[in-house]
UniProtKB/TrEMBL annotation:
<feature type="active site" description="Proton acceptor">
    <location>
        <position position="131"/>
    </location>
</feature>
<comment type="function">
    <text>Hydrolyzes RNA 2',3'-cyclic phosphodiester to an RNA 2'-phosphomonoester.</text>
</comment>
<dbReference type="GO" id="GO:0004113">
    <property type="term" value="F:2',3'-cyclic-nucleotide 3'-phosphodiesterase activity"/>
</dbReference>
<feature type="short sequence motif" description="HXTX 2">
    <location>
        <begin position="131"/>
        <end position="134"/>
    </location>
</feature>
<dbReference type="InterPro" id="IPR004175">
    <property type="entry name" value="RNA_CPDase"/>
</dbReference>
<dbReference type="Pfam" id="PF13563">
    <property type="entry name" value="2_5_RNA_ligase2"/>
</dbReference>
<feature type="active site" description="Proton donor">
    <location>
        <position position="44"/>
    </location>
</feature>
<comment type="similarity">
    <text>Belongs to the 2H phosphoesterase superfamily. ThpR family.</text>
</comment>
<dbReference type="GO" id="GO:0008664">
    <property type="term" value="F:RNA 2',3'-cyclic 3'-phosphodiesterase activity"/>
</dbReference>
<feature type="short sequence motif" description="HXTX 1">
    <location>
        <begin position="44"/>
        <end position="47"/>
    </location>
</feature>
<protein>
    <recommendedName>
        <fullName>RNA 2',3'-cyclic phosphodiesterase</fullName>
        <ecNumber>3.1.4.58</ecNumber>
    </recommendedName>
</protein>
<keyword id="KW-0378">Hydrolase</keyword>
<dbReference type="InterPro" id="IPR009097">
    <property type="entry name" value="Cyclic_Pdiesterase"/>
</dbReference>
Amino acid sequence: MTKRRLFIAVNLPENIKKKLIDYQRKWIELDPKYIHWVRESNLHITLVFIGYVTNDEMYEICNLVKEKAKQHEPFFINLEKIILGPPEKTPRMFWVEGAKSQELADLQNDLENALSGGGLAKKEIRPYKPHITLARFKYEIAKSLPKVDELFKVQFAVETIEVMQSNLKRSGAEYVVLESVELGI
């Protein structure tokens, strides 16, 4: 039986993706064997990581996402800065941190509760911290990187959420939108 690796995400507008790729170019001198930059097409904010599911479970997930999306109106996300994260540990990523958003937190919580209640995803133990991963790097270079705390003030509207499939390949993950769901409809 074939299984798909799924997650639910907020995809970014193309103009914001382009700005983030410009930021990545600032760090081009870092050794590629220690750092893996996220491709432009893969930049997103994960709401819920689901994992491997069957086709039947995928359809059930898509239906649950549609149901929950109807209960949430479109809203705005404010991105604030680029840092090394996670901040409370030895950093392993470049990421974009956003301002706290009650609308985003409510949407994420509703989705996670619906999916975990239906046995389709595990409830995350760690508190939800919305972020956009720009790169992952190996521990060997973590201590040699300078402190990164750069302003990245951008606002964008969240009008849809996507059920995404992650195809893991040697060249890195490739993401495919399985279902794009409008909020509030």
